[in-house]
Protein backbone atom coordinates (compact mmCIF):
# COMPACT_ATOMS: atom_id res chain seq x y z
CA UNK A 1 0.00 0.00 0.00
CA UNK A 2 2.81 2.42 0.94
CA UNK A 3 4.66 1.64 -2.29
CA UNK A 4 1.48 2.23 -4.31
CA UNK A 5 0.89 5.59 -2.62
CA UNK A 6 4.51 6.59 -3.17
CA UNK A 7 4.27 5.75 -6.88
CA UNK A 8 1.18 7.90 -7.19
CA UNK A 9 2.84 10.82 -5.41
CA UNK A 10 6.03 10.35 -7.43
CA UNK A 11 4.05 10.63 -10.67
CA UNK A 12 2.52 13.85 -9.40
CA UNK A 13 5.98 15.12 -8.44
CA UNK A 14 7.42 14.33 -11.87
CA UNK A 15 4.86 16.54 -13.54
CA UNK A 16 6.91 19.45 -12.13
CA UNK A 17 10.37 17.85 -11.78
CA UNK A 18 10.68 15.44 -14.67
CA UNK A 19 14.31 14.48 -14.01
CA UNK A 20 14.39 15.09 -10.28
CA UNK A 21 15.05 12.58 -7.52
CA UNK A 22 11.93 11.65 -5.51
CA UNK A 23 12.92 11.44 -1.85
CA UNK A 24 11.46 8.39 -0.08
CA UNK A 25 12.20 6.84 3.32
CA UNK A 26 11.38 3.37 2.00
CA UNK A 27 14.19 3.52 -0.59
CA UNK A 28 17.42 3.84 1.45
CA UNK A 29 19.68 2.32 -1.21
CA UNK A 30 18.58 4.86 -3.81
CA UNK A 31 18.82 7.72 -1.31
CA UNK A 32 22.38 6.71 -0.39
CA UNK A 33 23.39 6.67 -4.04
CA UNK A 34 21.75 10.05 -4.58
CA UNK A 35 23.61 11.59 -1.62
CA UNK A 36 26.95 10.39 -2.96
CA UNK A 37 26.12 11.71 -6.42
CA UNK A 38 25.37 15.12 -4.89
CA UNK A 39 28.60 15.05 -2.90
CA UNK A 40 26.72 15.19 0.42
CA UNK A 41 28.03 11.76 1.47
CA UNK A 42 31.63 10.61 1.21
CA UNK A 43 32.23 7.72 -1.18
CA UNK A 44 33.82 5.70 1.65
CA UNK A 45 30.90 6.30 4.03
CA UNK A 46 27.46 4.68 4.00
CA UNK A 47 23.87 5.50 4.88
CA UNK A 48 22.74 3.73 8.05
CA UNK A 49 19.15 4.89 8.45
CA UNK A 50 16.43 7.25 7.25
CA UNK A 51 13.82 8.56 9.65
CA UNK A 52 11.25 11.32 9.88
CA UNK A 53 12.56 13.84 12.44
CA UNK A 54 9.20 15.35 13.29
CA UNK A 55 5.77 16.17 11.98
CA UNK A 56 6.23 18.53 9.06
CA UNK A 57 3.54 20.67 7.50
CA UNK A 58 4.83 21.97 4.18
CA UNK A 59 7.65 19.64 3.11
CA UNK A 60 8.85 16.05 3.06
CA UNK A 61 11.67 15.86 5.60
CA UNK A 62 14.08 13.03 6.45
CA UNK A 63 17.00 12.61 8.81
CA UNK A 64 19.84 10.70 7.15
CA UNK A 65 22.29 9.00 9.52
CA UNK A 66 25.64 7.69 8.37
CA UNK A 67 28.27 5.21 9.54
CA UNK A 68 30.94 7.88 10.03
CA UNK A 69 29.75 11.37 9.08
CA UNK A 70 27.36 13.53 11.13
CA UNK A 71 23.69 13.08 10.27
CA UNK A 72 21.99 15.61 8.00
CA UNK A 73 18.44 16.75 7.26
CA UNK A 74 17.00 16.34 3.76
CA UNK A 75 14.06 18.52 2.86
CA UNK A 76 12.10 18.32 -0.38
CA UNK A 77 9.58 20.98 -1.38
CA UNK A 78 6.97 19.21 -3.49
CA UNK A 79 4.07 20.68 -5.48
CA UNK A 80 1.70 20.10 -2.54
CA UNK A 81 1.44 20.69 1.21
CA UNK A 82 2.89 17.54 2.77
CA UNK A 83 0.39 17.49 5.65
CA UNK A 84 -2.54 18.16 3.29
CA UNK A 85 -1.59 16.63 -0.10
CA UNK A 86 -4.84 17.79 -1.69
CA UNK A 87 -3.63 21.40 -1.28
CA UNK A 88 -1.27 22.52 -4.03
CA UNK A 89 1.76 24.51 -2.91
CA UNK A 90 4.36 26.58 -4.80
CA UNK A 91 7.63 24.72 -5.25
CA UNK A 92 9.58 28.00 -5.25
CA UNK A 93 9.66 27.73 -1.46
CA UNK A 94 12.69 25.44 -1.63
CA UNK A 95 14.73 28.05 -3.47
CA UNK A 96 13.48 30.77 -1.12
CA UNK A 97 14.61 28.84 1.95
CA UNK A 98 18.00 28.21 0.33
CA UNK A 99 18.42 31.93 -0.42
CA UNK A 100 17.33 32.99 3.08
CA UNK A 101 19.91 30.67 4.65
CA UNK A 102 22.61 31.91 2.28
CA UNK A 103 21.79 35.54 3.07
CA UNK A 104 21.80 35.24 6.85
CA UNK A 105 24.88 32.97 6.91
CA UNK A 106 27.11 35.99 6.24
CA UNK A 107 25.65 37.98 9.14
CA UNK A 108 27.40 36.75 12.27
CA UNK A 109 24.64 38.21 14.44
CA UNK A 110 21.98 35.98 12.80
CA UNK A 111 23.85 32.92 11.50
CA UNK A 112 24.04 31.08 14.88
CA UNK A 113 20.23 30.95 14.99
CA UNK A 114 19.74 28.96 11.77
CA UNK A 115 20.96 25.57 10.50
CA UNK A 116 23.88 25.55 8.10
CA UNK A 117 23.07 24.97 4.44
CA UNK A 118 25.03 21.95 3.17
CA UNK A 119 23.67 21.98 -0.34
CA UNK A 120 20.72 22.48 -2.65
CA UNK A 121 19.69 20.42 -5.68
CA UNK A 122 17.42 22.62 -7.85
CA UNK A 123 16.60 19.76 -10.21
CA UNK A 124 14.97 17.83 -7.34
CA UNK A 125 14.17 20.82 -5.10
CA UNK A 126 16.00 19.16 -2.19
CA UNK A 127 17.84 21.00 0.58
CA UNK A 128 20.57 19.34 2.63
CA UNK A 129 20.80 20.97 6.05
CA UNK A 130 22.71 20.70 9.29
CA UNK A 131 20.93 18.32 11.66
CA UNK A 132 20.10 20.15 14.88
CA UNK A 133 19.94 16.83 16.69
CA UNK A 134 18.85 17.08 20.29
CA UNK A 135 16.84 20.25 19.67
CA UNK A 136 13.03 20.13 19.93
CA UNK A 137 10.38 22.49 18.68
CA UNK A 138 8.41 24.68 21.06
CA UNK A 139 4.96 23.27 20.31
CA UNK A 140 4.94 22.09 23.94
CA UNK A 141 4.03 25.60 25.10
CA UNK A 142 0.38 25.10 24.08
CA UNK A 143 -0.14 22.30 26.59
CA UNK A 144 -1.68 22.99 29.99
CA UNK A 145 1.28 21.71 32.02
CA UNK A 146 3.95 23.42 29.91
CA UNK A 147 5.04 27.02 29.48
CA UNK A 148 7.65 29.05 27.69
CA UNK A 149 10.55 30.28 29.78
CA UNK A 150 11.34 33.99 29.98
CA UNK A 151 14.84 33.27 28.65
CA UNK A 152 13.38 31.48 25.61
CA UNK A 153 11.16 34.48 24.84
CA UNK A 154 14.19 36.75 25.14
CA UNK A 155 16.14 34.60 22.68
CA UNK A 156 13.36 34.72 20.08
CA UNK A 157 13.09 38.49 20.47
CA UNK A 158 16.87 38.77 20.08
CA UNK A 159 16.67 36.75 16.85
CA UNK A 160 13.92 39.05 15.55
CA UNK A 161 15.95 42.11 16.57
CA UNK A 162 19.03 40.84 14.74
CA UNK A 163 17.12 39.78 11.63
CA UNK A 164 15.59 43.25 11.37
CA UNK A 165 19.08 44.72 10.94
CA UNK A 166 19.94 42.60 7.90
CA UNK A 167 20.48 44.79 4.85
CA UNK A 168 20.43 43.04 1.50
CA UNK A 169 22.89 43.82 -1.26
CA UNK A 170 21.15 41.44 -3.66
CA UNK A 171 17.65 40.76 -4.94
CA UNK A 172 15.50 38.50 -2.76
CA UNK A 173 12.61 36.43 -4.16
CA UNK A 174 9.19 38.02 -3.77
CA UNK A 175 7.85 34.57 -2.86
CA UNK A 176 4.49 35.88 -4.00
CA UNK A 177 2.86 32.50 -4.65
CA UNK A 178 3.65 31.32 -1.12
CA UNK A 179 2.38 34.59 0.28
CA UNK A 180 -0.84 34.22 -1.70
CA UNK A 181 -1.27 30.73 -0.27
CA UNK A 182 -0.64 32.03 3.24
CA UNK A 183 -2.90 35.02 2.63
CA UNK A 184 -5.76 32.73 1.64
CA UNK A 185 -5.52 30.75 4.89
CA UNK A 186 -4.95 33.78 7.15
CA UNK A 187 -6.98 36.67 5.77
CA UNK A 188 -9.64 34.98 3.63
CA UNK A 189 -10.85 31.42 4.27
CA UNK A 190 -11.32 31.63 8.07
CA UNK A 191 -13.78 34.48 7.54
CA UNK A 192 -15.87 32.74 4.87
CA UNK A 193 -19.23 31.45 6.10
CA UNK A 194 -19.15 28.40 3.83
CA UNK A 195 -15.49 27.39 4.11
CA UNK A 196 -16.40 23.81 5.10
CA UNK A 197 -13.77 23.57 7.85
CA UNK A 198 -16.06 21.52 10.10
CA UNK A 199 -15.04 23.33 13.25
CA UNK A 200 -17.37 21.28 15.45
CA UNK A 201 -15.25 18.21 14.71
CA UNK A 202 -12.38 20.07 16.37
CA UNK A 203 -14.42 21.24 19.35
CA UNK A 204 -18.22 21.13 19.66
CA UNK A 205 -19.62 24.65 19.59
CA UNK A 206 -16.67 26.19 17.75
CA UNK A 207 -18.65 26.57 14.50
CA UNK A 208 -21.33 28.63 16.25
CA UNK A 209 -18.63 30.67 17.95
CA UNK A 210 -17.11 31.59 14.59
CA UNK A 211 -20.33 32.88 13.06
CA UNK A 212 -20.23 36.36 14.59
CA UNK A 213 -16.80 36.98 13.03
CA UNK A 214 -17.85 35.64 9.65
CA UNK A 215 -20.88 37.95 9.66
CA UNK A 216 -18.97 41.05 10.85
CA UNK A 217 -18.54 42.98 7.59
CA UNK A 218 -16.71 45.87 9.26
CA UNK A 219 -14.15 43.49 10.74
CA UNK A 220 -13.75 41.67 7.43
CA UNK A 221 -13.05 44.94 5.60
CA UNK A 222 -10.27 45.70 8.08
CA UNK A 223 -8.87 42.19 7.72
CA UNK A 224 -8.82 42.72 3.95
CA UNK A 225 -6.78 45.91 4.40
CA UNK A 226 -4.32 44.03 6.57
CA UNK A 227 -4.13 41.31 3.94
CA UNK A 228 -3.35 43.92 1.28
CA UNK A 229 -0.44 45.15 3.41
CA UNK A 230 0.81 41.58 3.77
CA UNK A 231 0.83 41.09 -0.01
CA UNK A 232 2.40 44.45 -0.80
CA UNK A 233 6.12 44.87 -1.42
CA UNK A 234 8.04 45.58 1.77
CA UNK A 235 11.58 46.39 2.77
CA UNK A 236 12.41 44.16 5.73
CA UNK A 237 13.69 40.61 5.44
CA UNK A 238 11.23 38.39 7.31
CA UNK A 239 11.26 34.77 8.37
CA UNK A 240 7.59 34.72 7.44
CA UNK A 241 6.27 32.11 9.90
CA UNK A 242 7.80 32.82 13.31
CA UNK A 243 5.65 30.51 15.44
CA UNK A 244 6.66 27.79 17.96
CA UNK A 245 6.72 25.04 15.32
CA UNK A 246 9.55 26.91 13.57
CA UNK A 247 11.54 27.45 16.76
CA UNK A 248 13.78 24.75 18.20
CA UNK A 249 15.48 24.72 21.58
CA UNK A 250 18.27 22.60 22.99
CA UNK A 251 20.00 22.66 26.35
CA UNK A 252 22.20 25.53 25.20
CA UNK A 253 20.81 27.08 22.01
CA UNK A 254 17.72 28.36 20.25
CA UNK A 255 17.28 27.89 16.50
CA UNK A 256 14.79 29.13 13.92
CA UNK A 257 14.01 26.82 11.00
CA UNK A 258 11.70 26.57 7.97
CA UNK A 259 12.00 30.02 6.37
CA UNK A 260 10.14 28.93 3.23
CA UNK A 261 7.62 31.75 3.78
CA UNK A 262 10.43 34.32 3.87
CA UNK A 263 9.99 37.58 1.95
CA UNK A 264 10.59 41.31 2.08
CA UNK A 265 7.52 42.56 3.88
CA UNK A 266 5.94 44.64 6.63
CA UNK A 267 8.19 45.26 9.63
CA UNK A 268 5.42 44.25 12.03
CA UNK A 269 4.74 40.76 10.65
CA UNK A 270 7.26 38.40 12.28
CA UNK A 271 7.03 39.82 15.77
CA UNK A 272 3.21 40.00 15.56
CA UNK A 273 2.97 36.30 14.71
CA UNK A 274 5.23 35.35 17.63
CA UNK A 275 3.29 37.54 20.09
CA UNK A 276 0.00 36.04 18.88
CA UNK A 277 1.26 32.57 19.76
CA UNK A 278 2.41 33.66 23.19
CA UNK A 279 -1.16 34.83 23.78
CA UNK A 280 -2.63 31.58 22.42
CA UNK A 281 -0.35 29.63 24.77
CA UNK A 282 -1.71 31.60 27.77
CA UNK A 283 1.69 33.10 28.51
CA UNK A 284 1.89 35.42 31.52
CA UNK A 285 0.73 38.85 30.20
CA UNK A 286 3.69 40.52 31.88
CA UNK A 287 6.08 38.36 29.83
CA UNK A 288 4.12 39.18 26.67
CA UNK A 289 4.35 42.90 27.37
CA UNK A 290 8.06 42.61 28.15
CA UNK A 291 8.58 40.83 24.83
CA UNK A 292 6.86 43.67 22.97
CA UNK A 293 8.89 46.27 24.87
CA UNK A 294 12.18 44.44 24.22
CA UNK A 295 11.62 44.21 20.47
CA UNK A 296 13.64 47.03 18.93
CA UNK A 297 11.09 48.56 16.56
CA UNK A 298 12.65 49.62 13.24
CA UNK A 299 11.95 53.06 11.83
CA UNK A 300 8.43 53.18 10.45
CA UNK A 301 7.12 50.41 12.71
CA UNK A 302 3.33 50.77 12.92
CA UNK A 303 1.96 49.73 16.31
CA UNK A 304 -1.65 49.75 15.11
CA UNK A 305 -0.79 47.51 12.16
CA UNK A 306 1.18 45.30 14.56
CA UNK A 307 -1.96 44.90 16.71
CA UNK A 308 -4.01 44.02 13.66
CA UNK A 309 -1.62 41.28 12.57
CA UNK A 310 -1.69 39.80 16.08
CA UNK A 311 -5.47 39.69 15.97
CA UNK A 312 -5.67 38.04 12.56
CA UNK A 313 -3.12 35.35 13.49
CA UNK A 314 -5.08 34.51 16.67
CA UNK A 315 -8.35 34.24 14.77
CA UNK A 316 -7.00 32.04 11.99
CA UNK A 317 -5.42 29.66 14.50
CA UNK A 318 -8.73 29.32 16.36
CA UNK A 319 -11.22 29.05 13.49
CA UNK A 320 -8.98 28.32 10.49
CA UNK A 321 -7.68 25.05 9.10
CA UNK A 322 -4.17 25.38 10.60
CA UNK A 323 -5.17 24.26 14.08
CA UNK A 324 -2.85 24.01 17.08
CA UNK A 325 -2.82 21.54 20.01
CA UNK A 326 -4.43 24.13 22.28
CA UNK A 327 -5.72 23.24 25.71
CA UNK A 328 -8.43 25.91 25.67
CA UNK A 329 -12.06 25.70 26.67
CA UNK A 330 -14.75 27.11 24.39
CA UNK A 331 -15.15 30.05 26.77
CA UNK A 332 -11.43 30.76 26.61
CA UNK A 333 -11.53 30.69 22.82
CA UNK A 334 -14.48 33.06 22.80
CA UNK A 335 -12.56 35.54 24.96
CA UNK A 336 -9.54 35.28 22.68
CA UNK A 337 -11.66 35.87 19.57
CA UNK A 338 -13.15 38.99 21.17
CA UNK A 339 -9.66 40.18 22.13
CA UNK A 340 -8.37 39.51 18.61
CA UNK A 341 -11.27 41.42 17.05
CA UNK A 342 -10.54 44.36 19.34
CA UNK A 343 -6.89 44.35 18.29
CA UNK A 344 -7.89 44.46 14.61
CA UNK A 345 -10.46 47.21 15.13
CA UNK A 346 -7.98 49.23 17.14
CA UNK A 347 -5.41 48.87 14.40
CA UNK A 348 -7.49 49.64 11.34
Which class of secondary structure composition applies to the elements? Answer: alpha+beta
Please give the radius of gyration in angstroms: 21 Å
Q: What does the largest sheet look like?
A: 5 strands, antiparallel
Strand portion, in percent? 5-15%
Q: Return residue spans where pLDDT drops below 50 for at least 5 consecutive residues.
A: none
Describe the overall structure.
The protein has a five-stranded antiparallel β-sheet with strand order 1-2-3-5-4, with helices on both faces. Helix 4 (150-163) runs parallel beside helix 9, helix 5 runs antiparallel to helix 7 (217-231) and helix 8 packs across helix 10. It has 348 residues and is an alpha+beta fold. 42% of the residues lie in helices and 12% in strands. The chain is built from eleven helices and ten strands. The relative contact order is 0.12. Strand 8 (247-249) and strand 9 (254-256) form a beta hairpin. It starts with a helix and ends with a helix. It has helices at 2-14, 28-38, 92-105, 150-163, 176-188, 206-214, 217-231, 269-280, 285-294, 303-319, 330-347; strands at 47-51, 60-66, 72-76, 117-121, 126-130, 136-137, 236-238, 247-249, 254-256, 263-265. The chain folds into two domains: 2-130, Phosphorylase Kinase, domain 1; 136-347, Aminoglycoside phosphotransferase (APH), C-terminal lobe (Aminoglycoside 3'-phosphotransferase, Chain: A, domain 2, Alpha-Beta Complex), CATH 3.90.1200.10.
Amino acid sequence: MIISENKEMEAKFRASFQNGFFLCKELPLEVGQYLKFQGWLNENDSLVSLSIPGEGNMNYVLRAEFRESPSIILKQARPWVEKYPHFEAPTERGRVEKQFLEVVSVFEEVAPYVPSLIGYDPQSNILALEDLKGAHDMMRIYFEDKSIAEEEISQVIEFANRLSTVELDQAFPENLDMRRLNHQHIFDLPFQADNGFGLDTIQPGLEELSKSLKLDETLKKKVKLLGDVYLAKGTQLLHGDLYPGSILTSSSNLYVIDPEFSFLGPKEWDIAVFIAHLILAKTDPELVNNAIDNYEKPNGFDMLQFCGFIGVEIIRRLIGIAQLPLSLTLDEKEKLLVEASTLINRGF
